[in-house]
Amino acid sequence: MESSIEVIEFALADGRYAIDINIIREIVEMVPITPIPRAPPYITGVINLRGEITNIVNLNKHLALPPKELSKSQKIIVFTADTIKGNNVGIVVDSVASVVVVPVSQVKQASEESGEKEGNYVKGIINMFSAGETKQGSGLVIWLDILKLFKDIEKK
Known about the structure:
mainly beta; CATH 2.40.50.180; 5-stranded mixed beta sheet; 11 strands; 9% helix; globular
């Protein structure tokens, strides 16, 4: 039996991305985000999620994607606390598509030669057409290494 990966697919700045499902705690509707004065540009602010302060990372800025105004239609993906050393962290995404189980044979591993900053956070490219998707679109989804991104944020 072929091994597979389980990811959650989401949209961000006209692109399709995926993150490992095992590090996601929950997906919540957009709530007001409180900006933090003098915070680094990759921090959007914080939210109160059932009494817990949760930091919101601006993935667009960190991946050098076009900026987008926050809207009520967006979602917040909140990660498990052990993802970033016990801290509550989330990211804003434009929409969440679904949880997908993808055979490893449908994933092209990312090249280590990429000199691009955002290229360092790509685990691979998932060919959703080969995984059985029939929707319109490119059929290609960028599988992000969000743990590596958070480790780089911790260093700053």
